[in-house]
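Researcher: Please translate sequence to structure tokens.
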Amino acid sequence: MGDVAVGARSGHDGEENRGRPEETAGPAAVGAPDSGYDSGTEDGRVTNGQSGQDGPNGGTEEEGVGGTPPAAPPAAKKQRSFWKELPILIGIALVLALLIKTFLVQAFSIPSSSMENTLQIGDRVLVDKLTPWFGSEPERGEVVVFHDPADWLAGEPTPDPNALQTVLSWIGLMPSAEEKDLIKRVIGVAGDTVECNKTGPLKVNGKALNEPYVYPGNTPCSDDDQGGRFKVTVPEGKIWVMGDHRQNSRDSRYNQSDKNGGMVPVDEVVGRAIVVAWPMDRWSTLPVPDTFSQDGLQSQAQAQSSAAAALSVAPQGLALAGVAPFVWWRRRRTAPVETR
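Model: Translation complete:
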């Protein structure tokens, strides 16, 4: 950019300057009036591009637009201290634990010997609460936790938990003292006929069960008149349960006089116990014993129901198998021909 003549405001030379050599611009006199074209700042710095690099609006990049100082960069966000984040983390953990307890898995403690030696006093078991949400019902041989269906625990002492135990039970890390729950093995489901005569063996639909899980020294059945001898048919929506410690378990046998005839309503079942989680030296899974997989264990009605279900699926399966070759043939005929 060349030097600018002093007083050149309109772009046209006046008559008095015509033919005279141009005067070079000198330093502005102190107190000289602003011509309108000089853009010096109050502190005297040049902002019209004659010094430094031109900014987008005539100011230098360091000075910002119009010579104003640039905005200060945002200060780095100070990291929150661990102790301030700890309550948030604890809150999230509690919410997750409550959701898991409500919908997925809950821990229960074994307070009695009725399931020995499968479960011992003080064992902690994890109970699957998720599968019942998808319509799954208890099956023979499973160990299940269920709410007291008809005062089976009447007269049993209720523990008085301290504050810590109350909190732990609320989040599912300990069983609740207020909930009266029991744990037994499912022996019969809807449609099954379960019977015991004298000392056994225990029979389901006429098939004798080989029960290695029964407490050593116990007989599969009890030869008494209080409920040890029985023959019952399990109605729809109910299950028949018994403890593995047969001579020390107040189960379906000894509650036949209640409103459910000793049965447990399926909707009272909390879930299936799947793992002994504590103590560590007792860690083990709780699978269904092989004796419940033997042939012919299903009742006639159950077998007919299974056959009907298979027949209802068979036509669709046959139709699919019949149409598959046709679809393959059509795809072969309509496949594009590669040209070169």
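Researcher: Any highlights?
Model: The first strand starts at residue 105 and ends at 109.
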